[in-house]
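Q: what does this look like with pseudouridine-5'-monophosphate bound?
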Amino acid sequence: MSNLKIGKVVQEALEKGLPVVALESTIISHGMPYPQNVETALAVEELVRQMGAVPATCGVVDGVLTAGLTKEEIEQFGKIGKNINKVSRRDLPFSVAKKESGATTVASTMIIAHKAGIKVFATGGIGGVHRGAETTFDISADVDELAKTPVLVVCAGPKAILDLDKTLEALETRGVPVVGYQSDCLPAFYTRTSNLKVPIRCDSAKEIADAFHQSNELGFPGGMLVANPIPEQYSLDGDKMEAIILDALKKADKLGIKGKEITPFLLEEITNQTGGDSLESNIQLVFNNVKLACEIAKGLTK
Ligand code: PSU
Ligand code: MN
């Protein structure tokens, strides 16, 4: 049996050369609480359709790498939440061998998308270089995946819980283009701006699609990261968020939380501490990224 399954609608769209946008499942299981996670995941799929593209939510189902989870599967992933395996690149072979289900991170979703022939992927924020990485060495596999796998990822910037400066440097070292969409500075997930400049600015989806096409033509192995600022009305107060993030980091340290548990822990802490404001922002920035990803996917099919 093949270890890759492409949903029927996704397969047909790919055969016809229609725009397809990949979506991840860790953001559903580990990134948001139930039931908002399921509501968001389904609303995101609907938004992709409204935009004239085909959604392909990715994950591992009973050991099968799947591009195009069914509605039932999305509901199941959301309900199981953090009790489903969070699967990054290193975990994939084990999920397959043990025929287990797992929610895929940005890195592993990129792998599935690429195997399926999908070029564009929308998410909230990517994993990156953690604060204190100079002692912990905690750098998300998402960073290396962007250098290895030719999938374009639209996000709202690296998650604010990270060290943005080091994340940009790590991406630069690996030759990953970081594009600010209609922005000169790197958006910081919950906020539109940061004190960091992006190396490249693009003002239209077409411009981004053309450059990504050329990256593929040049035979570059890697992808591209598009950083799309959260819409103004949902942007949170940077100083307030920073205080909450510092508190959450202290708590994680005290509890000895590290490895793959740290990102979900911090996100949950932040959601609780902001009384759900950060969750609303998180949902809205995903919608915003999905719209841009659809435009880029359309640009690539022409
Ligand atoms: N962005 C969000 N919510 C999330 C994530 C990103 O808004 O839940 C997930 C993604 O799946 C990303 C992962 O790949 O967190 C990074 O985890 P780590 O730092 O353990 O690599
Ligand atoms: Mn990590």
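The domain at 4-301 is CATH 3.40.1790.10 (Indigoidine synthase fold). The radius of gyration is 18 Å.
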